[in-house]
Amino acid sequence: MNSAGYRYAASDQAFYIPAIVRHLEPADFPRDAALIDGQARAILVDDALAAVVKTTGVSLQWLFAVLYGLTLVLLLFALIRIGRSLYRSEWTVIALTAAMTMRHSIAKTGANTLEGYFHPRVLVFALGLLGVAAFLERRDWLWTALVALGIVIHPTTAVWFGVWLGIAAWFGRPAWRPALVTAAGAAAAGVLLMLWRGPLAGRLVPMDAEWLSAIGDKDYLFPFEWPPTAWLLNLATVLVILLCWRARRHAKLTVAGETPLVLGAMGLLLLFLCSLPFNAARIALVVELQVSRVFWMLDVLATIYAVWWLTEDWLTEARRLKTGAALAAALVVLSLARGSYSMLVQFPDRPIFDLDIKAGDWRDAMAWARTTDPSSGWLADPIHAARYGSSIRAAAHRDVLLEQVKDRAIAMYDRTAALSVADRERALAALPWNTPDGARALARRYGLDYLIIDQELDLPLAFRSGTLFIYRLR
After folding, report:
1. Alpha helices in 312-469 (DSSP H)
2. Cβ-based neighbours of 339, under 8 Å, separated by 6 or more
3. Three-class SS state of 451
4. Alpha-carbon torsion 246, 251, 255, 256, what sign?
5. What are the structural domain ranges in the chain?
6. Which residues contact 422 (CB under 8 A, 6 or more apart)?
7. Gap between the Cα atoms of 123 and 134, Å rounded
8. Are strands 105-106 and 111-112 parallel, antiparallel or unpaired?
9. How far, in Å, CA of 362 to CA of 365, rounded?
10. CA geometry: angle at 162 spanning 2 and 15, to 5°?
11. Less packed terminus of the chain by CB within 10 Å, N or C?
């Protein structure tokens, strides 16, 4: 509810669905393959999910719904395990799980603590928190396996957990230090190989002006362009962690593995600070890694400590139980109220579960589009994904001239693709896509076949779905 309902084909799935479809239907996306592959060649999750679909025959809709449910279950289980390791009251554990339903963005990082759709990043976040719980429980084989699994699913999120827990292991497991040095050396060798001949080749160069212009106004990629409030919000998590850890240490409440975890979190902060000069120089790999997302890990650790401080730090045993129960109840009520506001006021047209493309004119139009030639090219409002809830690539599995929000994000991973996106944006600025003459001119230039629009035009009508018209352009 706090994510305004579950949705299929929303937001970042505008990339993940086409990347998976590329493996399932090789004939699809002949025009946009280079754009999609710019990011897809650096990850394995699209290959893995395509293999699941081929092996089981399950639809992407149901696979994503199941994985979304699994993500939430794993996240809940991880929070319970962490809470039981650090807290003295079950009420505090309940308060923590309620607090973590309060979805929010991590300031100027492009990451949210929860999503209303399946995202590999959030699944790996849940696996990473399970790794944190396993570290506190001294189940070292488990947290190493979880980090390794996470690297297959969403490498960058898993790497930050690997750094966090690796530093924690250095301080908390002295006998592991030779193995950690060996693992770090092997990882460095692997990265160098990928930079030399692998999927990261050519990414240690500065991003030039043309490449940066294609990305647009995504200032969250560049910390030196953050407003002061973003710096204050993110660095406040560090202050909360240190103050609460000091209070627990003074009260002799720290548990085994807790101080190493705090040191590991400070290591993440140091890594971010060390990355700043390279980010300022616009080194492509550093920008693409989005090191600022380490604040997501710091945010959750600060939340864990803040809940402890509110319920256990300054209270006697008798008052702790009462206050913990009251805070847990208040957080549950607050979360339900906020979620109800999101569902009933902000987005009243959204059901709590949308397992497929949202029913309506757009869904019917996309169903018809999937019956067209897989090589057909489409023209639509550049922000059509935001208007209708899903992109043409994700909903119809067809190439589209531009899906502005997602194409700018993907352009970060490949300069050639970025220049293509910039070229298309310039063409759309010069030629009005929503007029017959402009649409025909764009069709001639880019070999487009269909236009989808919500107004009648003097063009040959191919299909109509309520308020949406699909016209032939050649």
Report:
1. 317-341, 361-369, 384-388, 392-396, 404-410, 415-430, 436-446
2. 1, 2, 101
3. strand
4. positive
5. 11-58+358-474, 59-346
6. 210, 213, 214, 411
7. 17
8. antiparallel
9. 5
10. 50
11. C
Instruction: Identify which of 382, 374, 392, 395 has the alpha carbon closest to the alpha carbon of residue 421.
Output: 382
- Which H or E run contains 453? strand 450-453
Tell me if the pTM is above 0.85.
Answer: yes
Residue 397, token pair as written in the block: 């599995």
Q: Judge contact between 87 and 93, C-beta under 8 A.
A: yes
Residue with tokens 């240490």: 249
For residue 154 the two structure tokens come to: 């969403």
C-alpha distances in Å from residue 81, one per residue of 96, 263, 281, 304:
11, 20, 41, 12
For 283, the 3-state DSSP assignment is strand
Q: Taking the CA of residue 312 as centre, how many other CA atoms within 13 Å lie in the half-sphere pointing to its CB?
A: 23
| d(C-alpha 334, C-alpha 356), whole Å | 29
CA diameter of the chain = 77
Residue with tokens 């896509």: 433
pLDDT tens string 238-290 = 999 999 999 999 989 999 999 999 999 999 999 999 999 999 999 999 999 99
- If we measure between CA atoms, which residue out of 425, 436, 424 comes closest to residue 472? 436
Residue 253's identity, in one-letter code, is L
Count of CB atoms situated within 10 Å of the CB of 296? 22
Tokens matching residue 62: 């149901």
Tell me which residue of 93, 192, 182, 194 sits closest to 144, measured CA to CA: 182
Which two structure tokens, joined as six digits, stand for 91?
Answer: 């009420």
Percent of the chain having pLDDT more than 70? Answer: 98
Helices (H), 2-89: 13-24, 33-40, 45-56, 60-86
Q: Is the distance from CB of 468 to CB of 461 less than 8 angstroms? A: no
* CA angle, residues 120, 303, 139, in degrees to nearest 5: 65
Strands laid side by side in the 399-400 sheet: 399-400, 377-379, 450-453, 468-472, 461-465
329-374 pLDDT per residue, tens: 999 999 999 999 999 999 998 889 989 988 789 999 999 999 999 9
